[in-house]
Design brief:
The complex is a heterodimer of chains A (798) and B (161).
Chain A: H1 16-20, E1 36-42, E2 48-54, H2 56-59, E3 64-69, E4 76-77, E5 84-85, E6 91-92, E7 98-104, H3 107-114, E8 118-123, E9 162-170, H4 173-178, E10 182-190, E11 202-207, E12 213-217, H5 222-233, E13 240-244, H6 260-269, E14 275-278, H7 281-286, E15 293-302, E16 308-320, H8 326-335, E17 345-354, H9 368-385, H10 390-397, H11 419-430, E18 443-454, E19 464-470, E20 476-479, H12 489-501, E21 508-510, E22 516-517, H13 532-559, E23 566-569, E24 572-575, E25 582-584, E26 592-593, E27 599-600, E28 605-610, E29 631-642, E30 648-658, H14 665-684, E31 715-721, H15 738-741, H16 743-755, H17 766-776, H18 778-797
Parallel strand pairs in A: 1-14, 12-13, 16-17, 20-21, 30-31
Antiparallel strand pairs in A: 1-7, 2-6, 2-8, 3-7, 4-5, 9-17, 10-15, 11-12, 11-14, 13-22, 15-16, 18-29, 19-20, 19-28, 23-24, 24-25, 26-27, 29-30
Helix pairs in contact in A: 9-10, 9-16, 12-13, 14-16, 17-18
Chain B: E1 2-8, E2 11-17, H1 23-30, E3 49-52, E4 55-58, E5 71-73, H2 75-78, H3 82-93, H4 103-116, H5 122-129, H6 139-148
Parallel strand pairs in B: 1-5
Antiparallel strand pairs in B: 1-2, 3-4, 3-5
The chains are: A alpha+beta (798), B alpha+beta (161).
Chain lengths: 798, 161
């Protein structure tokens, strides 16, 4: 038998050799015969009326085929709120808003012509601050909000800049605050950050002469894209084909709808020839979405034993000009605001707010890096006031599986994880109580820890499906809807199939590893929310079960035993009661032919599907059942802080997660480490900076610095707890987003631990940390400077 | 338009290129070498790194006319170099990639690092690879992958199959 299990082992991704040789084909690498190129013309104003637009000169540039403007495409788009236009119509809403697109035979002609499109603007007063956007007389970013179509459960407020309002209410928060011994009150802020996926967004649209709309796009959501395109363009679903080749980094940027509607319409405009749009890095960072800016005003009350009695919070998510996806980010930040803790009284209001800044969308963590930033620091500050330690105050308040209830009213399931185990493991690995001595007297060493919990935030119809086909040589083909963007889901699914049939991993092919397309793949809602392995995994397991049922039926006729006596495992089919009656699985792949030439059965095609059946919409108090699984985790760090420069250096990092069941240890460690590094970037460096008129000041990878290999000269440890999720695929839960959520609060807690300095704003750049030291603890700076000067004197004396 | 003669992955090419054509476009668009990626087009991300006469260079920052007479190697060509194949295998084994978009640039750069110093330590490896960005954050795995391939770059280890 060849049933050596691969589950839990370190298995390289199945497409590794294509990646390492650069031969995996991303949409970035695809070109079609006769393909044209598009170049965007973008707004120079944050808010302005388009008085007129002329492009006669642009059309004279050799190679130019057409110029399209907003008037050509009167469609409104969006996944949750249809607040997006294809190209600006009548007015522009941010600096970088696409106003027109030039289509030409080559990129340089398109670029040259784009310079010659003249737009006459009448500037309007922009609203660039999330709080000012909420003032009574604030200019409106979307005057027509009442006319937009809205997905059930979302509540835009027409006549304001509020794109969505969400409230979570449990108990009486004012009473809870009154009864508290310690109340922590503060304002926290996270700037807009860029996904900075290495593959810029790019799309090819081909509105074919037979009126089939075909797309090749860097997209995490081929099926959702097909649905939205069909709805907004009025083309039947099966006349839209979305190809989603492997993605060069998604992180949420490529979820929902991207540039597909634009390129499809440009193709039609260009006489039904394929048109490709490839954003420049500057366009990616100004015309395309980023993560929301987050502002939180919180009051948190604790009893003298450290019980979390009350949490009153107002979250303001600056959604920029389109809140299309961010309405759900704001809702999610709201309903999961209590994190891993049971809080007696909760009142959270979470608003997604329009401003005249770059639009925002989903990003890895989806509201959780945001809501954990205040929450996890509050606990350390309360612990400090109460003379408790960060671990005990958390242990007192952690949700108790099987007993607790979330503020949404959801029962905390017994099998949903082991939060206390996660907490204790992280604290142990970082040796949280052990005091470390700094290498030089002008630095200090601190340790910090942060818990995290996250569930996929998805609508109730976030379904998945899978098909499993047996081949006559014993190999297995698997058709899913989840593609490859580095997260490793296709490899994980292949491992599950290998395990269940007992065939070698090399015998399993997950077809979608090399790309999804809506014609030939199984439906899945989107590749988002850490849901791929979970949702598709369940669908694949059901498809395997179905295939095995078909095999059993055939084998029953062949073996002349009852169906329920037939077992399929280890690559064989055999009778349970007469195990010497057995044949290889491959012999049943296409049905079975007896020695007399008669046959039974037919090709085995297993099918499986999944939908989160227990989900409901949330009511006006935020109550309902909204989640299919929660993954708990904790990040702990040891950092060295230079008190003279404010520079933070990570010395050690620990990542702990309760994943339910380890499927692929190699990709799991890769996620844990990679997520830490992405979290580190957002903690220390990353911020999209705007000037007073709404221009992005750093739309490039020099001034928007993301972590490089030299930023990773520290030790990192990963630890995984396996509390099986009963309805999860082999017990597993998702992990892809969780890995970055707790990094920033853990580092801030380490700074607090070392100095007592509170960091309310990200990123914790050296300058910002230095300013906070000077504001909160200037004596630390003076002492450090003195010791530095003394040591300098000693060196000079030598 | 100018004539250039270059050797790309062991094949001599005689090309006529625009005066202002960047090597990145010549390789990707004219020659269909898609391992050479781009993410910034201004020398920041390192994804377009290729070996020019065995030195790693960013192909978006070079005009094709500047490399006339050079020997150019990309990941596709390195696959046929025995040492580089071992390095690639090490990347695979260590999971030193996620989305894979930057992987060819890391392999290419790391090959040149080890070719010039098979004893490169952690710090040297990091310093020389810092010009390439991996947003998925596989840096720890990349360091391990490069380090464990070092032995195959020492004298006596064959370069060809």
């Amino acid at each position: 038998m060849n049933s050596r299990t691969v589950l839990g082992e370190k298995v390289p991704q199945v497409d590794s050799w294509l990646k390492v040789t650069g031969t995996l084909r991303y949409s970035f690498d695809i070109s079609l015969p006769g393909m044209l190129y598009a170049k965007l013309v973008t707004s120079k104003y944050a808010h302005a009326k388009i008085r007129s637009l002329s492009f006669e000169e642009a059309l004279k540039v050799p190679g130019v085929v057409a110029v399209a403007t907003g008037k050509d495409f009167p469609f409104r788009l969006g996944i949750y709120v249809s607040d997006r236009d294809v190209l600006a119509v009548n007015k522009v809403r941010w600096v970088g808003h696409p106003v027109a697109a030039v289509i030409a035979t080559d990129m340089s002609s398109a670029e040259e012509a784009a310079e010659k499109v003249n737009v006459d603007y009448e500037p309007l007063e922009p609203v660039l601050d999330v709080e000012k956007a909420l003032e009574k007389d604030a200019p409106l970013v979307h005057e027509d909000l009442a006319d937009y179509s809205v997905f059930p459960g979302f509540r835009p407020v027409p006549g304001t800049n509020i794109a969505n309002e969400f409230n979570l209410v449990k108990g009486d928060v004012e009473k809870g605050l009154k009864e508290s011994s310690v109340v922590i009150e503060d304002t926290f802020r996270i700037p807009q950050i860029s996904h900075a996926a290495m593959e810029v967004q790019n799309s090819i649209g081909y509105w074919r002469p037979d009126n089939v709309v075909e797309l090749w796009s860097s997209v995490q959501s081929p099926f959702a894209t097909r649905f939205l395109l069909s709805k907004s363009l009025g083309v039947p679903l099966n006349r839209v084909i979305v190809h989603a080749p492997p993605i060069g980094g998604g992180f949420g940027l490529k979820a929902g709808l991207g540039w597909e509607a634009l390129v499809a319409l440009l193709s039609k405009k260009a006489g039904n020839r394929p048109v490709k749009l490839v954003l420049s890095r500057a366009e990616q960072m100004t015309s395309a979405p980023s993560r929301d800016l987050f502002l939180a005003k919180v009051r948190a009350g604790f009893s003298k034993e450290g019980r979390f009695l009350a949490y009153k919070a107002e979250f303001f998510l600056d959604a920029g000009a389109y809140a299309d996806y961010t309405v759900n980010v704001a809702r999610t930040a709201g309903y999961s605001a209590e994190g891993s803790y049971e809080i007696e009284n909760v009142n959270v209001k979470s608003l997604a707010v329009y401003t005249n800044k770059i639009p925002t969308t989903a990003m890895r963590g989806f509201g959780h890096p945001e809501n954990h930033w205040p929450l996890e620091q509050i606990l350390d500050r309360a612990a400090h006031e109460l003379k408790m330690d960060p671990v005990s105050i958390r242990a007192v308040n952690l949700l108790k599986p099987g007993f607790s209830e979330r503020a949404t009213g959801e029962k905390v399931r017994e099998d949903e994880g082991n939060p206390e185990g996660v907490l204790r493991t992280a604290a142990g690995l970082i040796e949280i109580d052990k005091v470390e001595n700094p290498s030089v007297p002008w630095t200090v060493i601190g340790k910090g820890l942060s818990m995290l919990v996250k569930a996929p935030s998805q609508p109730s119809n976030a379904a998945a499906s899978a098909v499993v086909k047996l081949n006559e040589d014993g190999t297995v083909d698997v058709i899913t809807g989840t593609g490859s963007m580095g997260q490793g889901t296709p490899t994980g699914l292949a491992m599950i199939v290998a395990e269940e049939f007992g065939v070698p991993l090399e015998s399993v092919k997950v077809v979608q590893t090399e790309g999804v397309d809506t014609d030939r793949s199984a439906y899945t809602w989107q590749t988002v929310g850490s849901r791929g392995l979970f949702s598709d995994g369940i669908a694949v397991l059901r498809a395997i079960e179905d295939a095995k049922g078909q095999v059993k039926k055939i084998a029953s006729a062949v073996f002349r035993v009852p169906e329920d006596d037939v077992e399929v495992s280890g690559g064989y089919v055999f009778s349970r009661t007469h195990p010497w009656i057995r044949k290889e699985l491959r012999e049943f792949a296409n049905g079975y032919t007896f020695s007399d030439g008669t046959s039974v059965g037919g090709p085995v095609i297993g099918r499986g599907s999944y939908i989160p059946v227990l989900n409901t919409f949330l009511d006006e108090k935020g109550h309902g059942s909204n989640t299919v699984f929660h993954t708990y985790g904790a990040t702990a760090v040891e950092v060295e802080l230079n008190l003279i420069t404010g520079e933070i250096k990570v010395l050690r990092a620990v990542q702990v997660f309760d994943v339910g069941k380890v499927i692929n240890l190699l990709t799991l460690i890769g996620q844990a480490d990679g997520g830490f590094i992405m979290g580190l970037g957002s903690a220390l460096f990353e911020e999209i900076k705007f000037d007073d008129s709404g221009w992005v000041l750093n739309p490039n990878l020099t001034h928007y610095y993301v972590p490089r290999i030299t930023d990773c000269d520290f030790e990192i440890k990963e630890s995984f707890i396996e509390t099986p999720q009963k309805d999860g695929p082999l017990g597993a839960r998702g992990i892809g987003e969780h890995v970055m959520i707790a990094v920033a609060p853990a580092i801030a807690n380490a700074v607090f631990n070392a100095t007592g300095v509170k960091m309310n704003e990200l990123p914790m750049s050296a300058e910002k940390v230095w300013r906070e030291i000077m504001k909160q603890k200037p004596e630390l700076f003076s002492k450090a400077l003195k010791s530095f000067q003394e040591s300098l004197k000693e060196v000079m004396a030598e | 338009m100018k004539e250039i003669r270059i050797n790309v992955n062991g094949v001599f090419r005689h090309l006529i290129v625009e005066d202002n054509e960047i090597l990145l476009d010549t390789l990707r668009t004219r020659l269909g070498i898609t391992s050479v990626k781009a993410a910034c087009w201004r020398g920041e991300c390192g994804l377009c790194t290729v070996l020019i006469d065995n030195k790693p260079m960013k192909s978006c920052m070079l005009l094709s006319v500047e490399v006339d007479g050079s020997e150019i190697l990309t990941a596709e060509g390195l696959y046929n170099n025995k040492r580089a194949r071992v390095l690639m295998e090490s990347f695979v084994k260590h999971g030193a990639m996620q989305c894979g978009f930057c992987t060819p640039a890391f392999v290419t750069t790391a090959h040149s690092v080890l070719s010039s110093n098979p004893d490169a330590d952690d710090q040297e490896i990091s310093e020389k690879l810092k010009g390439v960005i991996c947003r998925c954050g596989t840096y720890f795995q990349i360091k391990e992958a490069v380090k464990s391939a070092r032995a195959f770059y020492k004298d006596g280890s064959p370069e060809t199959f």
